[in-house]
UniProtKB/TrEMBL annotation:
Keywords on record: Cytoplasm
Pfam families found in the cross-reference section: CofD
Subcellular location, principal: cytoplasm
UniProt record similarity statement: Belongs to the gluconeogenesis factor family.
GO biological process terms on file: regulation of cell shape
Superkingdom of source: Bacteria
Listed InterPro entries: CofD, CofD-like_dom_sf, Gluconeogen_factor
SUPFAM superfamilies recorded: CofD-like
Protein name as catalogued: Putative gluconeogenesis factor
GO cellular component term of the entry, any: cytoplasm
Functional summary from the UniProt entry: Required for morphogenesis under gluconeogenic growth conditions.
A single MF term (Gene Ontology): LPPG:FO 2-phospho-L-lactate transferase activity
Length: 332
């Protein structure tokens, strides 16, 4: 991808999400002449992040770690050290990434102020852009299912195997959380808001369910672009079409706030995926052009597919090329 070198001001792009999809876009966006702000979910309670969260009540660090690395200008060897995960034979550190431990330590040093900790670490890691936790305290994700049951906790929600109707976030004392003013200011001043790719109910919506974040995304003058997932996800979006993803987002904020949706229409080769390695992904998301138009959004459909290591991913460079075109940084 050719870096844009126009003398026009750097466009302000806010990317909101979490999970493995967010760094894919940020890695490619980092090559562009853009002012990037990543707003990262803090409701993760699985894996290393969940263990650290349980022990010291810190915002889960895993997604923040990956985003910091994707925007860092440090030499690759330093980023590799930050990402290194201890092997299972190291019983005390088993499964923990060094970066998770560093983030947890900084947060403890600053009496739990994760926002300030991440800003300090961003300077240390020479991050080109801004990395903002969606909230300054750990959040609890709650879900209501079609049978009326309510479950709390991201890992428990996805393991339930039920149809989710809606989600919301609370703090440990069940109060309603709010994002820092810096997060809201970034959204309101943005030229483009990017949602996804990522788990619909557990990576994207937890951010939007923070009341002032959802309100800002609905009120901003920026174009809101949703990058729809390529595959349906077990325990979350089974049998979903691309229009179903957009419908759920709009319903949660009670407004058709998605302006543009990017959808992959390239077929995933039969039997390409390693179903054991990528066991949470089920089938390719069904394309429903009419359903998308009914949601009032512009539809950009193309081949955004990247096949790698018997897994299915978005081609970050192709997606970002389209984002740059939408914002007027590349010829139409």
């Amino acid at each position: 991808m050719t870096k844009f070198t126009s003398k026009r001001k750097r466009p302000k792009i806010v990317v909101i999400g979490g999970g493995t999809g967010l760094p894919v876009i940020l890695n490619s966006l980092h090559k562009e002449n853009a002012d990037i702000t990543a707003v990262v979910t803090v409701a993760d309670d699985g894996g290393s992040s969940g263990i650290i969260r349980d022990y010291i009540n810190v915002v889960p660090p895993g997604d923040i770690r990956n985003v910091l690395v994707s925007l860092s200008d440090l030499p690759q060897v330093y980023k590799d050290i930050f990402q290194y995960r201890f092997e299972s034979k190291d019983q005390f550190f088993s499964g923990h990434a060094i970066g998770n431990l560093v983030i947890a330590a900084l947060s403890e040093m600053k009496q739990g102020d994760i926002f300030s900790s991440v800003q300090e670490l961003s300077e240390m890691m020479k991050v080109d852009g801004h990395v903002y936790p969606a909230a300054n305290i750990p959040l609890v994700l709650n879900a209501r299912f079609s049978d009326g049951a309510v479950i709390s906790g991201e890992a428990e929600i996805t393991a339930a195997g039920k149809t989710i109707t809606d989600v919301w976030v609370t703090t440990g004392d069940d109060s309603l959380p709010e994002a820092r003013p810096e997060v809201i200011q970034a959204i309101m001043e943005a030229d483009q808001i990017v949602l996804g790719p990522g788990s619909l109910f557990t990576s994207i919506l937890p951010n939007l369910m923070i009341s002032n974040v959802g309100q800002a995304v609905c009120e901003t003058q920026a174009e809101v672009v949703y990058i729809c997932n390529i595959m349906t996800q077990k325990g979350e979006t089974e049998r979903f079409s691309d229009a179903d993803h957009v419908r759920v987002l709009n319903q949660h904020l009670n407004k058709k706030f998605i302006n543009t949706v990017l959808v992959n229409t390239e077929p995933v080769p039969t039997d390409y995926m390693d179903r054991q390695k990528y066991d949470e992904y089920l089938y390719q998301v069904r394309y429903d052009f009419k359903g998308l138009r009914d949601q009032g959004c512009r539809v950009i459909s193309d081949n955004f597919l990247l096949l790698r290591d018997h897994g299915v991913f978005h081609d970050g460079d192709k997606v970002v090329e389209e984002l740059m075109r939408l914002i007027g940084q590349l010829p139409v």
